[in-house]
Amino acid sequence: MDINMGDNNSMESLTFSWIAFFNDGKIIKQYEEGIEHRFQEVKDNLINLIRFSLVNKNFSICFTVELKNGFILYNNYRGINLEEIEYKENIRLIFFRRHQIEIGENLKQKNHTITYHLGFQYLDKLGNNKKIILQIDEEGNWILSE
Amino acid sequence: MSAIFHWCESNGAGEIETQDITNLNFGNLDTPNVNVTLYPVTRGQNSYSKYIRGFFTGTWTDITAIKFWKSLGNLVSGETIKAAANVSYVTPSKTSTGDSNIPILESTALSVNSAEGEVNIEYGGSAVSGYTAYIRLQLQSLISTTPGAVNQKTFTLQYDEV
Fold first, then answer.
1. From the list A11, A106, A108, which residue is nearest B1 (CB)?
2. Which of the residues A25, A32, A51, B84 has the least number of beta carbons within 10 Å of its own beta carbon?
């Protein structure tokens, strides 16, 4: 994967940022050339989205959802999907950041944790909607949920 | 960037809002960040009700699934915390709010709407203020409540953002 984030990364505040790949070769990076792209740009072109990655700041960790076949890759190796390979139709991206913000009585240090939820939903051969989602913490630890 | 969250508390008859409050102390005074040493809740009485809400600045696409609950801190005997979401602001008082006990699990958390009554806060949407609806809280005590300081509690607000 060729990744060039440019020189101006000071605006980045998230541990993981996204990169969206489309079937016409277009690539949108969340942080690119000093601007932050909104996810709305991906949402507006979901029908042409073929791959969606989350990468950490030094690019040592990369999670990718392949939307053509319904695979999840870790550092470009397929190995996270533990389910049996099965027929998948109408594969749709799932992505959001879950924030938990704490406040308390005399709580001087407020905690703000972010968990990245990345995966996809699809229809199986019986037409049942299924979901496969990774929950990724800010250290890159993950668990798989369905 | 992405969304930046701010805790806000409203007080007073004219609704004065304070952004970026530092605590959620319950006391015998209608003010943000109340000093409970100076203004403790009297046994058998209620604290002033508190009206808090979240405010989002920055940029995002959509904020959904906003929840609020008490995540840590045990209540002492005779102490309860009442809570309700999506209420209208009225001047805080010590009169019982009549609300239910605050949820203590994410699975039963209060669902919080936007200030405009929607289940999401869409960036740049028409007439979208960036505020959540109000969450009302009140500590209630009995004359039999254990004297002294109550346990520290932690409240959690959760939301999903893209």
1. A11
2. A25
Q: Which two tokens stand for residue A30?
A: 């969340």
Residues of A in contact with B160 (CB under 8 A): 96-99, 117
**Which CATH architecture is the domain B3-161 placed in?**
Sandwich (2.60)
**Token pair 């809280």: residue:** B137
Structure tokens at B41: 């809740």
> A127 is in which domain, residue-wise?
16-145
Report the alpha-carbon distance of residue B23 to residue B53 in Å, rounded.
13
**pLDDT tens per residue, chain B (162 residues)?**
689 999 999 999 999 999 999 899 999 999 999 999 999 999 999 999 999 999 999 989 999 999 999 999 999 999 999 999 999 999 999 999 999 999 999 999 999 999 999 999 999 877 889 999 999 999 999 999 888 888 989 999 999 999
What is the domain partition of chain B in residue ranges? 3-161
